[in-house]
């Protein structure tokens, strides 16, 4: 392998720049040429590819988002698109591509590997919803951003003795909601993996807490459940307690990455290049049981995970 490409795909996540920077600088350290591919698979198909040097990733480690930009590319899901992408890689002399993204992006990477291009995947998503790993780039920053925002909403909620429903991101997974629920001491946490739609239980909980003298009632609702505004109206009608919904939205995805995201992303970026240098191809980098590991891409895509039952249980006990 002489030339590697690097791209970010799917949703952007803080820390992706640290990973790109590590791929570029570790690649150059190992005498490889490194090509930056813009806008994920879409940019690959459009040949938006430029050579990167050590200075092209200067001043990026502290920046949120992704300097390579990202996109979703339906064209690449077709075999024709994948063949075309591989041809472009051959034409540009790219032997291997480091893909920073989620499960969807890994499926794209696997498809590219079937066309003869070596790939390595790095987990990049704020949602933590990649089965093979306990860490994904951006989750730490996103939960810290959400936690701080929820603390602020809580001040107003307590002052006005309101019930607040705060909706956090996470797509169909409840990891951000669960972590914020614990970190912010929420009275109720609604996770797509757990919530059965029983709003009466929440209403009973609000009334019981009010009787106990609690000044506020914070409900963290996950994006995968949604309908926070509708829920707020129904809760207010049933309890007579003023209830407001706050949807945190994209502010959770942006911002300067935390130290953890910078260090983990840097390590994973370097590991991706190390694997390629060792000839270990079509692997996904993951973090499990306190160690960085790598798995075969097929194996990684077959894995499934769920939120921790124990974490969920303690979140309920601590909210009493
Ligand atoms: P996030 O969870 O942050 O959204 P993701 O990587 O799961 O990240 P997706 O939108 O699912 O995001 O996938 C990104 C891109 O990967 C898609 O736009 C598409 O180009 C490619 N991709 C997804 N699934 C496949 C597939 N089955 N085959 C080939 N390419 C795919």
UniProtKB/TrEMBL annotation:
Its cofactor is Mg(2+). It is an enzyme of class 2 (transferase). ATP binds at residues 11, 72-73, 102-105. Its EC number is 2.7.1.11. It catalyses: beta-D-fructose 6-phosphate + ATP = beta-D-fructose 1,6-bisphosphate + ADP + H(+). Substrate binds at residues 125-127, 162, 169-171, 223, 244, 250-253. Mg(2+) binds at residue 103. It comes from the Bacteria. Allosterically activated by ADP and other diphosphonucleosides, and allosterically inhibited by phosphoenolpyruvate. ADP binds at residues 21-25, 154, 185-187, 211, 214-216. Pathway: Carbohydrate degradation; glycolysis; D-glyceraldehyde 3-phosphate and glycerone phosphate from D-glucose: step 3/4. GO terms for cellular component: 6-phosphofructokinase complex. Residues 4-276 form the Phosphofructokinase domain. Homotetramer. This is ATP-dependent 6-phosphofructokinase. The gene is pfkA.
